[in-house]
Amino acid sequence: MGRMRPDNDNVVRDQNSPAAVRVSKTRRRKFMGPPQETWFWMTIDCLSSPNMRSLSRTARLVLDRLIEEHYRHRCYMNGHLIVTYADFVRAGARRQSIRQAIDELVATGLALVDTGSFASPERRRSSRYTLTFYSVDGYEPTNDWQRIMPQYVEARLALIRKKYRKRRSLRERYTDAA
User: Fold this and answer.
1) Dist. CA 174–CA 155, nearest whole Å
2) Per the confidence metrics, is the pTM higher than 0.85?
3) Per-residue CA distances from 22 to 17, 34, 125 (Å)
4) What backbone torsions phi and psi does residue 68 show, to the nearest 5 degrees?
5) Per-residue model confidence as pLDDT tens digits over 73-124
6) Which residues in 68-87 are b (16+ Cβ under 10 Å) and which e?
7) Per-residue pLDDT tens for 121-158?
8) CA dihedral defined by 8, 13, 15, 17, rounded to 10 degrees?
9) Are 14 and 1 within 8 A, CB to CB?
10) In degrees rounded to 5, what are phi and psi of residue 31?
């Protein structure tokens, strides 16, 4: 049986056949999601992957905010998602940890970032984000997170965390000296 799509409240048509199939409201909810609410899907492979499980709390908050932005644009703007640091802070992330969280998402292959430019006011451009487990402009998802071997995920994240720990200690050393 092919993918099902709703025509109205109770009728669902199989894309491979013109015949309409009546479905109960419970079954409709199970396959189509809640009718009055926005909801999102994510594969169980992605959710249970070492990439997802090894993310820090802040990285998970940043990922959740990117998913929210994706669905606010009705899933059409992946690859062009613009989320500001203020948006991430409103989602619960500490401003000082956002850059590290974004680096974690990129290192695990869950997101890509097209870094913006802040050279001059007339040429300023915001960073744009892509979620690799959702399609972009009608093309299949790249699923970059699947290409990273599980044994390398922790090593990549350890390097990122070490880099930011070092930056933090240097910052503290120079602010204490002043």
Assistant:
1) 29
2) no
3) 14, 17, 49
4) -60, -45
5) 988 899 999 999 999 999 999 999 999 999 999 999 999 999 877 766 777 7
6) ebbeeeeeebbbebebeeeb
7) 777 788 999 999 999 988 899 999 999 988 898 888 88
8) -150
9) yes
10) -95, -30
